[in-house]
Write a structure and sequence with these properties.
alpha/beta; 211 residues
């Protein structure tokens, strides 16, 4: 199964989402490879930090840029799950990845600049589905305020109703310091002592992977 995590906006928690999915898959004994297709190498650096801790379940990692389609299809034959972190812009990696992926997961912050990228992204998704009609597309609200008084997440959910190509998940990833702490240690939040963050990731896994 190939899951491509991509958007047209940087800073939306794309790499954080990718590595936390990988950590939870590995923790459950699943065979997973992380493909870092973003030249910032955030995900690859996480995997390198993780590989230095022999107590952690293994997450294999490869880096691939430009046309990633054939690489993803090849890895899909060798691994149970292929999780791809694509650059946060309209990139060749994002477009070629969409032609191979089973699932496109679009993280976005509940802010107007992020929401403004959705019309163009929907157009790219439509083009990708001409080549990959079985592509399933999910939207994931990330970095949402933890303050219950702030209703940005609900407002973003209403906004996304105008984009039927993108199925909005019920899971919401909140803006929690533990995600940044885990990232710097090669961990997933499911491997740290923060039940709220861990449950956010598990809810995401249940929806995307039907666990």
């Amino acid at each position: 199964m190939i899951v491509l995590i991509g958007s047209q906006k940087g800073g939306c928690g794309k790499s954080t989402t990718a590595v936390n999915i990988c950590a939870e898959l590995a923790r459950n004994g699943r065979d997973v490879v992380l493909v870092d297709a973003d030249r910032q190498c955030t995900a690859a650096n996480w995997a390198m930090d993780r590989s230095g801790n022999e107590k952690l379940p293994t997450v294999h990692c490869v880096q691939k840029y430009e046309n990633i389609r054939e690489t993803l299809l090849d890895l899909d034959k060798r691994y149970e799950f292929v999780i791809v972190d694509a650059a946060g812009r309209d990139s060749r990696e994002l477009r070629t990845g969409m032609t191979a992926a089973n699932v496109l997961l679009v993280p976005f912050r509940p802010s107007q600049p992020d929401l403004d990228t959705l019309p163009n992204l929907q157009e790219i998704i439509t083009q990708a589905k001409d080549l990959n009609p079985d592509l399933v597309v999910y939207g994931l609200i990330t970095m949402a305020p933890t303050n219950p008084v702030v209703h940005e997440a609900e407002e973003a959910r209403e906004y996304l109703q105008d984009y039927p190509e993108i199925q909005l998940l019920s899971a919401i990833i909140r803006d929690r310091k533990v995600y940044r702490d885990a990232m710097s240690e090669g961990l997933g939040v499911v491997e740290m002592d923060n039940p709220k963050a861990a449950e956010e990731v598990r809810e995401l896994m249940r929806e995307v992977f039907q666990w």
